[in-house]
Amino acid sequence: MRDTANTLVWPASTFMIALILSVVPMPDVAVAIRPPWPALVMIYWTLVAPERFGLMTAMALGLAVDTLSGALLGQNAFAMLIITYFGLKFHLRLRFSPISQTTITVFGMLLVYEFILFWVDGVAGRTVPFSERWMPLLIGTLLWPLVLEVLDRIRKHDQARIEV
Question: What is the number of domains present in the chain?
């Protein structure tokens, strides 16, 4: 039991850091380029450990994003569920893919995420500037290799610490 609790510390920490980065105050210019940190972290953990982080984690993380950002309750949760489902469905194919192919797939997943947010905002009558809607998609895609590398190092360090 203790090993299980220890192995959840780093993933939970990465989710918390992603939530903090998603709501930290930024200048108006930088708000338009803020990447969807929770979505990136959820995609990572879904691809790396699908047996531990699935739809329930996505729902909880999405509701936390909705609560912290002031969005419609369930908007980010629904989008997070959809991209997590795609991650769970294709994680075996993506696990051994080259970084370029994984990055293109993450672009597609983030595109679906942003489109769902766009669709829900449209139904609710809320308008979001073009740059605030689609720039995070591009920035998140460009940051994916860095996110992958940093989280891989954290995960491998944690596994090495537990095995010793």
Answer: 1
CB 136 within 8 A of CB 29: no
Tokens of 62: 């999405």
Backbone angles phi, psi at 130, to 5 degrees: -55, -45
Task: Provide the domain limits for residue 89.
Answer: 2-163
Token output for 78: 């629904």
- pLDDT tens-digit map of 51-78: 999 999 999 999 999 999 988 999 999 9
Closest to 52 in 3D by CA, of 83, 88, 78: 88
List the structure tokens of 60: 């909880």
Q: What is the CATH number of the domain that holds 149?
A: 1.10.1760
- pTM of the predicted structure, to 2 decimals: 0.91
Q: Which residue has the tokens 């720039």?
A: 135
Element (H, E) at 164: none
What size, in residues, is the chain? 164
Tokens in use for 140? 């998140």
Among residues 36, 45, 134, 141, the alpha carbon closest in space to that of 84 is found at: 45
